[in-house]
Amino acid sequence: MSVAIYGIKSCDTMKKAMVWLDAHGIAYIFHDYKKEGVDRARLLGWVREVGWAELINRSGTTFRKLPEADKTDLTEEKAIQLMTDNPSMIRRPVLEAATLLIGFKPERYAEFFKG
Prior knowledge:
Blueprint: E1 4-7, H1 12-23, E2 29-32, H2 33-36, H3 40-50, H4 52-55, H5 61-64, H6 68-71, H7 76-85, E3 94-96, E4 100-102, H8 106-113
Parallel strand pairs: 1-2
Antiparallel strand pairs: 1-3, 3-4
Helix pairs in contact: 3-7
């Protein structure tokens, strides 16, 4: 199974997820939003799979610093555009394998990779 992890290298949660993957011998490809952005087609696929509300990080600094007009009355299209323009607004990490795992919880990773 191929594994890709998406996020920002300097993010503490990303670091924890990558340390967990390394410690369990799971090979992965890392995609850094800061350097590579996020492909709209990939983001649309994620939205279809888990929904835009699961992907957008409303508690992060990037979202909180947005003008009030951008944060209110969010629709799927508006949220997708915000995440495309500001990839730091996407919850981290997004682990793409046989399914998507959003965020990092060691027990969720252990459950997913045990099989």
